[in-house]
């Protein structure tokens, strides 16, 4: 049974189109910097917000109309939901989707029953992937919703909880591998603390590292060669999460000899909650070879929590695409819309409007970023700004061939430092505006 019978496949109609159910900038086959938009952006629809979200918030019940959902946690309802999800993704034209294990299949009364439920739904996911050609960008396990994880999962003070979480991740990895997932994500929703009086931080971090090494070992044992991803987030629901930001994640990975096995999945709303811009987090991860994928959303800067809104800011998407293009793309990662419609946008058609807007915003940002890069206006300015390190004493500093004593001798002979040149910040901001 089809549920979006009144919606045709979303087509590209160009920048002058007034059709709200058409793309104005996302033309999947258009070539940008040697690749199609489809391959540059690798859009993914997230299963949790899109097909499991209800619109509930701390002050009110769910509002979203989802006529395909019978309100039960049955396997039959979960299977029906899969059919609806792939109908939506196929009409939208996104090449990928992402899921948590508990998004697609209901929790059972026992671990064995949960595994059985997930296998049953995975059979249908595989059928739909085969039918539509839509692929799995990444899978993950929900280690934060169930009350057993109230103290965390891999960082829980209870060894049985650690073991349960490991069992759940083992199964989720196996299903992700079976479905051809190109990545597997770890998001530590409760891997942190509320109060240090009751927390052994070193022990918890040691346990998290042990958990990750077990995951690496299991991936090898089942032949999973996909990319592992950490997703930074500073707070909410805990006061402090160990994956606070890109820097904290990379420090953890280096400390515990995991850097060769795990890259980062950066999310805009998480970046701003950590007090950073998305561009900062992307560039910081990228220059260290650790930018693997992104969650494409945005947050309301007037609200202090994770609002997961769809991205519509062209400045934001342009900055994202500058960083992504600078490193040569995201594959095998992608641009996943970890975003949800507002609870006031309660009709099913709003799901299309939201995703069309997000895809167009990133496609527009991609074209602008490519034009800026083609003209070299930013890269040339930056290169010129650091030209004193390309020769003479600067070249020796970068080569590591001088000491403090050498530099003192050099400056005693050279005398006073010449005035620095202007950073031209306002000019560069104006210049970027010209491309928008």
Structure explained in plain terms:
Belongs to the xylose isomerase family. It is a single chain. The protein is of the alpha/beta class. It has an eight-stranded parallel beta barrel, surrounded by four helices. The protein has a two-stranded parallel sheet with strand order 1-2. Strands 3-4 form a two-stranded antiparallel ribbon. It has two domains: 365 residues, TIM Barrel (Alpha-Beta Barrel); 48 residues, no CATH class. The chain is globular.
Keywords:
single chain, 436 residues, 2 domains, EC 5.3.1.5, alpha/beta, TIM Barrel, 46% helix, 8-stranded parallel barrel, 16 helices
- CA radius of gyration: 24 Å
Q: How does the overall form come out from the CA principal axes?
A: globular
Could you give the distance between the termini? 43 Å
Report the CATH topology name of the largest domain: TIM Barrel
Strand order of the largest sheet: 5-6-7-8-10-12-13-14
> What would the average pLDDT be, to the nearest integer?
97
CATH superfamily of the largest domain: Divalent-metal-dependent TIM barrel enzymes
Computed structural class: alpha/beta
Proportion of residues in extended strands: 5-15%
* Structure summary, number of beta strands: 14
Which range best describes the helical content: under 10%, 10-25%, 25-40%, 40-55%, 55-70% or over 70%? 40-55%
Number of domains: 2
CATH architecture of the largest domain: Alpha-Beta Barrel
Specify the biggest β-sheet.
8 strands, parallel, barrel
Helix/strand order, N-terminal first: EEEEHEHHEHHEHEEHEEHEHHEHEHHHHH
Poorly predicted ranges (pLDDT <50, ≥5 residues)?
none
CATH class of the largest domain: Alpha Beta
InterPro entries: Xyl_isomerase-like_sf, Xyl_isomerase-like_TIM-brl, Xylose_isom_bac, Xylose_isomerase
Enzyme class: isomerase
Cofactor: Mg(2+)
Main location: cytoplasm
């Amino acid at each position: 049974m089809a549920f979006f019978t009144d919606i045709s496949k979303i087509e590209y109609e160009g920048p002058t189109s007034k059709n709200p159910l058409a793309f104005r900038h996302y033309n999947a086959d258009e070539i940008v910097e040697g690749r199609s938009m489809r391959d540059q952006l690798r859009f993914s629809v997230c299963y949790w917000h899109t097909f499991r979200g209800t619109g509930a918030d701390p002050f009110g019940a769910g509002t979203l109309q989802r006529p395909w959902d019978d309100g039960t946690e049955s396997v039959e309802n979960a299977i029906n939901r899969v059919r609806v999800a792939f109908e939506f993704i196929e009409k939208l034209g996104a090449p990928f989707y992402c899921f948590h294990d508990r998004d697609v299949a209901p929790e059972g009364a026992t671990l064995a029953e949960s595994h059985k439920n997930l296998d049953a739904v995975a059979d249908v996911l595989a059928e739909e992937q085969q039918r539509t050609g839509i692929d799995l960008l990444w899978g993950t396990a929900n280690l934060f919703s169930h009350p057993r994880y109230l103290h965390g999962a891999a960082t829980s003070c209870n060894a049985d909880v650690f073991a349960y979480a490991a069992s759940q991740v083992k199964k989720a990895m196996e299903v992700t591998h079976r479905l051809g997932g190109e990545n597997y994500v770890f998001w530590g929703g409760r891997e942190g603390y509320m109060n240090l009086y009751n927390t052994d931080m070193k022990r918890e971090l040691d346990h998290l590292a042990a958990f990750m090494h077990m995951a690496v070992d299991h991936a090898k044992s089942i032949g999973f060669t996909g990319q592992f991803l950490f997703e930074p987030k500073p707070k909410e629901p805990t006061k402090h999460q160990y994956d606070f930001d890109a820097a904290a994640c990379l420090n953890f990975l280096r400390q515990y000899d995991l850097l060769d096995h795990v890259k980062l999945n950066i999310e805009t709303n998480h970046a701003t909650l950590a007090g950073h811009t998305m561009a900062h987090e992307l560039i910081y991860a990228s220059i260290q070879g650790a930018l693997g994928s992104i969650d494409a959303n945005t947050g309301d800067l007037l609200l202090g929590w994770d609002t997961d809104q769809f991205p519509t800011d062209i400045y934001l998407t342009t900055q994202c695409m500058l960083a992504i293009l600078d490193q040569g793309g995201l594959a095998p990662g992608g641009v996943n819309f970890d975003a949800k419609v507002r609870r006031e946008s309660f009709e099913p058609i709003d799901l299309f409007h939201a995703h069309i807007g997000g895809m167009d915003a990133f496609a527009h940002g991609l074209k602008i970023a490519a034009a800026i890069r083609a003209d070299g206006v930013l890269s040339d300015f930056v290169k010129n700004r650091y030209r004193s390190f390309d020769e003479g004493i600067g070249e020796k500093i970068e080569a590591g061939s001088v000491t403090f004593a050498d530099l003192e001798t050099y400056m005693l002979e050279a005398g006073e430092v010449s005035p620095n040149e202007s950073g031209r910040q306002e000019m560069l901001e104006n210049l970027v505006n010209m491309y928008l």
